[in-house]
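Suppose you are handed a protein chain with no further information: no name, no annotation, nothing but its sequence. What can you learn? This example shows the usual starting point.
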Amino acid sequence: MNVERSELLSGIGHDALWALIEGRHGDPFSILGPHEAGGMTVVRVYLPGAEAVDLIEASSGRVVTPFSIAHPSGLFAAATASRMGYRLRIQWPDGEQLTEDPYSFGLLLGELDLHLISEGTHYSLSRTLGAVAMSVDGVAGVRFAVWAPNARRVSVVGDFNAWDGRRNPMRLRQSAGVWELFVPRLAPGERYKFEIVDAHGNCLPQKADPVARASEAAPSTASIVASSTPFRWTDDGWMKGRDRQARLEGAISVYEVHAGSWLRDRQDGNSYLDWAELSQRLVPYVRDMGFTHIELLPIMEHPFGGSWGYQPLGLFAPTGRYGTPEDFAYFVDRCHGAGIGVILDWVPAHFPTDVWGLARFDGSALYEHEDPREGFHRDWNTLIYNLGRNEVKGFLIASALEWLERYHVDGLRVDAVASMLYRDYSRNEGEWIPNRYGGRENLEAVEFFKHLNSIIHERCPHAMTIAEESTAWPGVTKPPEEGGLGFDIKWNMGWMHDSLSYIEKDPVYRSYHHGTMTFGMIYAYSERFMLPISHDEVVYGKGSLLTKMPGDEWQKFANLRSYLAFMWGHPGKKLLFMGSEVAQPGEWNHDASVSWEVLDRPAHVGIQRLVKDLNAIYGDEPALQFGDFHPEGFEWATADDAVNSVLGMLRYAKDRSSSVLVLSNFTPVPRYGYRIGVPQDGLWIERITTDAREYGGSGLVNGALSTEPIPAHGRPVSLSLTLPPLATIFLTGPSP
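A reasonable first move is to predict its three-dimensional structure. Written in structure tokens, the prediction is:
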């Protein structure tokens, strides 16, 4: 049809036209796409840089009409007698493109989705926001959606439009502040970001997608369209057999791993292993060592490797450093196939200030607080999530569920809980804002944790949540309905600090600090605790576990063996950071590998074998499991022998159907004929002594011991045994 230019631009004001041309228009669908005007259909497309455009009938493929140049900046328009399905044939300087028109599609997100996003209860957020490969009206492409309520204009940019924010401006769904656009003929693997013009007309640095499910590996920063094809899992047996309560009652021994430094390929430029290689190397190793779980330092996408993942920006995307999202799913699948659970460290406390990330995402303090007294962590130079916003709470909860549901992860260890619970955390007077009652408690964080744990346990009843919480906040592991935060387990930071402080002392001084090792049992059952010897204890000048130990080389190894066995005998679930199980000499370096070469030395092999045997007895003996969370499963055999620096623990199975005696001698002096009262008459069998020669010890062993009718420690019968120097022994008792 021959139509005047004025008719092609009918109804479009001068200001609106220039706003579109300059990339400031907030409602591109009001100009672009098909519009009824004067009894005809006018189609407008804005394609800066295009040389020519033809309107193609979708059903027949015939050329209906060429587009006219409505504005030399790249606005084209064509008129047809009636509305029809159509495509665009675009001539670019370097080739031809045939595609559907993004502005010919109707509304994409449903009203319920928008309502749930605003309410903060859309828990399948990555299936709604972000980039979703899908078909609309039979056309394959990618639906983009992003929350940016204070933006004037949002565009999706990528290789597909030369990163030109004028080409694909998005539609605003006003009720939720969400922008959406379907770009036809895109496929998984496309790189993209969002270009945002703020409320003041400023074009911000292009932003990565907060809900991207895949990202470029650092230092690149683009988001990537992830595949929507479901992963083919083979872990049905594992999934059906998961029972959170049964798991909590049993042995939990966690191997904490930084995926990038567990093993480096020195023949390939010191490169780290990818998920497939970790599946082949790490998984069999952990299974052989007898650990029940692998806990990964944060693998959510993060810009700075030196943060170890604790400053993430991509809370829905496995980092591209180790492969694709499908590769990570394969790793979890292989773990489950080997009978190993997977726990992820997850960081809802804060995020880095990178301009392409969440910081002032739409030009306003959207994810963070406006006031730095609430919104800035000076310790880490990071921004704090505003948990008073429904959308932010929903974003974080949806992230947690993403890992548990999409990736079959078995638990989340929540980082820096204490920093979230207190408004004055690491702040001086006058540098924080009290809550509405004038207190220091962060009431929004409290409610967030209660809601988070309630939702997780409702939707993922198998999943564990673990709190890294370093204060005496009450009820961390109590259910929300009882006033607690609802976590399943809390890291026992007090036990870790006290026990390391004790074991680092020269044995000659330990008798003066005996109570340091017994103090933990005063509060051991106030929460459900895990004993963590984590990455934080072997970095930043703290030295490795081995170098913390006093004495000469033999004593260092003996101290370490005794300490590890004491930890495995003590109530509480276990966590050990990689490298500690081989007595790595140097502290952890995230840019290097665990010092596996030390396994050429017998003393290091001995430590490794001991940890394997400790995991075995922990898994085999109900008496070493029941008392982890139940006070009736523990009592001191001797807690007051400070003179000899001897500690004795009795561990019981449920109904006292079995028992284990754990004795530690924290001096280099062997104790012969040491008498200890025991609860059952009969034969007690030594199952582990850390002084055994196969562990690198001197070989003082007890074997099987019969009780004697000599009262001791308030018990009617006792054992006379040998306590090797700097050693811990485990003896199993007779059946009652």
